[in-house]
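Ticket closed. Logging final result for CBS domain-containing protein.
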Amino acid sequence: MWNHIEPIRCGTPLTKVVKSLLANHVTGLPVVDEKRHVIGFVSEQDCIHALLVSNYHSEGDPMVDDVMVSTPYTISPETSVVDLAQKLEKEKPKVYPVVEGGRLKGIVTRTAILAALARSGCGIETPRYAAAE
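Final structure:
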C-alpha cells in the first residue's frame, strides 16, 4: 500500500489533478473531503475526456468534482492480495483506495498486486519501487 501520495481534494482544478497523476506515476487517485473521507475517484481516462471537451469548447479548466466517479471501489487494509487479485478479474480499476473507519489510509495499485503475487508464487525479484506500492 502506498500511503505517501497526497489525495485529490474537492474543488481542485483538473490541470492540477493531471500534474499529480503524472508526478506520482499512477493512473488514478481518490478524491477526499476535508476529513479524508473518500467521496470519489478520478482517473487518467476521466481527465483525458474532460480536457478534450473543455479544450474543444474553450470552457476553461474543469474541476475534479465535475469529472470524478462518485461511487469508487474501495478496499479495507485487511483485504488479502489474493482476494484483490480475484476482484481484478471482474472489475476494471487499476488503483484501489484503502479505507479504514471511513477515512483514506492509502492506495493499492494493480502493479503492487502483480509484484506481490510474483514474489510469493513465482519467487520473482521485483524492483524496489514495485514492492513499495
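The beta strands are 8-9, 28-32, 38-43, 95-100, 103-109. No further action required.
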